[in-house]
């Protein structure tokens, strides 16, 4: 009887697990942080989804990249290292982008498409994959 119950559990959970792995395997979730162009003394207001203390700005960027809803972050390292993860960007919510002394604003962006820099020839269709 226990074997039947275990098989039933495996039958129920296995398809859900496989489908979530397949969804995660596409490249739509691949993002990069723009470390080179912070906006000093600015931040995005009204879109904070998480407020955490981190050791440094790199840790803040990893927190954002590991949070699916995070599209940008505000960081303050004066006194405490405050990391605010945002669910919007200054590009999508420019009216909420304001001067804020002591903070730096960083964007995350989708990884660049290889198809844009190497279009297919002879009418072919380029498809980005995670295996390139």
UniProtKB/TrEMBL annotation:
Residues 27-110 form the Apple domain. Keywords: Signal. The keyword Signal applies. Residues 1-20 form the signal peptide. This is Apple domain-containing protein.
């Amino acid at each position: 009887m226990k074997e039947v119950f275990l098989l039933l559990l495996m039958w129920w959970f296995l398809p859900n697990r496989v489908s979530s792995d397949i969804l995660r395997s596409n490249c739509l979730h691949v993002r990069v942080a723009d470390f080179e162009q912070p906006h000093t003394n600015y931040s995005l207001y009204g879109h904070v989804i998480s407020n955490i203390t981190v050791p440094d700005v790199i840790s803040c960027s990893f927190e954002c990249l590991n949070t699916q809803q995070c599209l940008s972050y505000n960081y303050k390292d004066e006194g405490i290292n405050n990391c605010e993860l945002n669910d919007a960007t200054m590009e999508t919510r420019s009216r909420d982008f304001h001067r804020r002394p002591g903070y730096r604003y960083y964007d995350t962006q989708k990884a660049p498409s290889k198809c844009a820099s190497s279009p297919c020839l002879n009418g072919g269709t380029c498809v980005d994959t995670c295996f390139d």
